[in-house]
Amino acid sequence: MKYSMFIGRWQPWHAGHRWLIDQRLKENKNVLICIRETEINENNPFSTKEIKTNIEEELKDLVESKRVKVIIIPDIESVNYGRGVGYEIIEHYPPENIKEISATKIRNEMKKN
Question: Which residue positions in the chain have pLDDT lower than 50?
């Protein structure tokens, strides 16, 4: 089974992230969400395990059906590939309403609740 891979911090998982993976799911592709293991700090207030649990809960049906897989990976400094690697590199361009989503605002709202 092949997957379309997305790498990120997902701090926190939000509607913009969902829009992104939905682009591949709509094409009937499976999705692999890779959570970069980062230190907890101001920009990364949640542990990778918390993020993984949150994403798996949000996408429960997709995870159970194996359309989506969520894993934790070591933090990365680059993504590298050689010629003729057998897969595509795809950039997705979100609409304005998705671009405007602010993870900082979302984190602040979560603190209030």
Answer: none
